[in-house]
UniProtKB/TrEMBL annotation:
Highest taxon above the source species: Bacteria
Known cofactor(s): Zn(2+)
Record-stated family: Belongs to the endoribonuclease YbeY family.
The protein's name: Endoribonuclease YbeY
Enzyme Commission number, as recorded: 3.1.-.-
Amino acid sequence: MLTIDFLDETNTIQPAHQQLVDDILRHAATFMGITEEAEISVTFVDDAAIQDINREYRGKDMPTDVISFALEEEEDVVIEGMPRMLGDIIISTERTAEQALSYGHSFERELGFLAVHSLLHLLGYDHMNEADERAMFGKQDEILTSFGLAR
């Protein structure tokens, strides 16, 4: 079972949007075979807040759409009786809205995409080279399509 802790620092997230993120993360976790107890936190922020985080942790002084902080490492030992601590997802709602408009799809589709993208990062996927990008984006598309949020 997946436990998701939400924090809306913007005070703008509609209950339906939080429910969407909850539903799609649970769907993606099941799709990815996560059957044990696991925890994720999701925080919604504005562009200024995510820019501060991006500058501090990634050395990039600009806003971004989403940042993931994985708490697991390959060599971590799972402690019996304790949930997997997958990590933290931080989503800029301003950037989500801008990108949805730019890409010509709904806020909900972009929000779902960012949530799935982040979960895959927490699970060790990345897109630093072409092969990894194909694998990660292919998995994203499979999850989004099976959930009903395809482009």
